Amino acid sequence: MKTPSTPDMDAIKARMHDVWVAGDFGEVARHIEHHAEDFMARRGLRPGMQVLDVACGTGNLALLAARAGARTCGLDIAENLVEQARARAAAAGLEIEFIEADAEDIPYEDASFDQVLSMYGAMFAPRPEVAAAELLRVCRPGGEVVMANWSDEGFVAEMFQVTARYVPLPPGVPSPVLWGRPEHARARLGSAPELEVTPIPVEFEYDFSPAETVEFYRRYFGPTQCAFAALDEDGQAALRRDLDDLWSRYNHGEPGRTQVQAEYLEVVAHRA
Question: Which segments within 120-213 are labelled E, that is strand?
Answer without folding.
Answer: 139-150, 194-206
